[in-house]
Write a structure and sequence with these properties.
Number of strands: 26
CATH architecture of the largest domain: 3-Layer(aba) Sandwich
CATH superfamily of the largest domain: Peptidase S8/S53 domain
Shape: globular
Number of helices: 16
Structural class: alpha+beta
Radius of gyration: 25 Å
Oligomer: single chain
Distance between the termini: 63 Å
Strand order of the largest sheet: 7-8-6-9-10-12-14
CATH class of the largest domain: Alpha Beta
Amino acid sequence: MGEDQSLIIEIELVFRASEELASDTERAVIGEIAAAGGALVSRCRIPDIAYHAILARLPVAAIRQIAERSSTGISGLDAVMHIRPQSVALPVEVDDTVEQAGLIPPPPGNGEPILAILDGVPVSAHPLLRGRLSVDDQFNLEPLAVVEERTHGTAMSSLVVHGDRNIVEPPLGRRIHCVPVLGEADQFPQDRLVVDLIYQAVTAMRRDADPTAPSVLIVNLSLGNVRKPFQGRLSPWARLIDRLSHSYGILFCVSAGNHTERFNIASIATMGQYEATTQPDRAKCTLEALSQLVASRRLLSPSETVNGITVGAANIDAVSDGQRRTARNRVDPYHPMVTANPSSSLGPGFANSVKPDILMPGSREHLTMVASGAGLSVQPAAPARPHGLKVAAPPRGGAASMEHYTSGTSAAAALASRTAHRIHDALETEYGEQFLALSLHQRAVILKALLVHTAAWPADSAELIRGVLGPADPKQHVRQRDNIRRFLGYGVVDASDAIYCASDRATFWAAGSLAPETRRPIVVPLPACMSGQALPHSVSATLAWFTHVQPGRQSYRSVRLSLLTANDIDQFRVSLAKSQPNTHQASRGTVISRRWQGSKAPALAANSSIELVVQREPDRGARIDELVPFGLAVTVTMPSVAEVYSQARARITPPVRVRARTR
């Protein structure tokens, strides 16, 4: 690149609480930018997250001086905290375009949207999306986005509305609010800071005066900054999500990010040898290779968010067996094991919290050969018909009704947002005003709890990770679980179980608010039909909330809740399950999920119950006087005992209708 050319960089300033000091600092930095032959492009200051940054265009010579860490010029200013390349959006992987087939249900009515997508400009006239999106082009990005290149927003909108088109599912019954934040070539506009874009987009939806989407309580964010992997310090984008979640009562579903770079499998010489290796040996050598790269496959900003749900990609799709057999020169590393895709980013999150929170389908990712000889070098293959999620595609060759295949954590996050919407629909249908009368904050945290509630570690993949990453000493079980949750989080979500009940399972939910240092007992009835039955049975509970945050302080997560049990759980003959993060590991974020399992016969009376306690611990740092809304989901199950659901429902006062699915 020539010395006379220029590049755009982001300069984050040391935050000054005083507006006067902040203005003086900003003027000094802008002056230095001008002295270096550059120019101000944009600026943003958000006191709520202690963020102050400048977007500047600088000549190559000035950038070289910064790279050399010169003590003079811009990099030598005390007011400058970080200098980074401009944020770049992670591209979505798509391939294998086909014509759309099948009947398309009519679009929904004009009900208020509860879900928003912040993404690229969608092809809103696509037959699968027509009449289903309310596009609010706040930043005038639509004119810059060539229709044939509107891949990211179209794919994510399709997944949210319809799910994976390899499966026949009804579309969502409400319109989706869509705010484009990617423009030309599915990238962030060059004249705005990404934190500023997201801040403006969300506050416009929920501001007090003339909000654009006042009912939105789920936001899909299938985006990540390729140039900002998580390194232990919260990014401004993640801090923004945390603040907006808490302020407005919004559940953000955020993609963990993908790492599609090549990696070496040293124990295998050729692709033919790799393909011939039987399971579980093939899965083991793949995981051994990835375990050497843990430090370089971290979460991408903003997926380290504390209040949001971070979604990784599981190797799940609904491709038919016939299509699966058409894969050529690509190898499935893990099947039949269900686990995280090789490209899916790994945790943990901020303060060693559980991240990703959950895994959702991201296609059954295959690997393709890059080189072989002394060792095999492989790379995640692009999605295609043999392994991918089918979504709406921009027009090709004059044909408007097109589809293609996608994969990865962006797709997984979109499916998580869709699942949260469907959970809301089910609660609205069955509880009506009893549910809708709750505040947006309370509804959002209930959805958060129920979305994570069914997540579980697949036993075979958890055991593989334990065996490969160790430690081998069984006494080191905490470190073993640390390694498992790094890949799996709380586990793979069962979307059907999150939405429906079954005859041998009953799920309860509760919402409330806690003042400082208070507690709330929650009584869960135990069906008498489970008494005397020496069968596997369990109780699982998931607690979720949004914390107030204090940027710049060690006590960033200032509100901490805990989930306690009374001694009466012993009558149910269960103990804490070992197949999930332990209580200490799960207490570092804003979701706590616990499971108790047993197989000995419980001794129950007709009115037996267990008591769970939601407790607000002393606030960290400054006292937070405001009430903190929480959502709690509890499930009692004894597989094959069909009266569990009906007896549990009969114990609820007042009785409610719960949509049941009989297995």
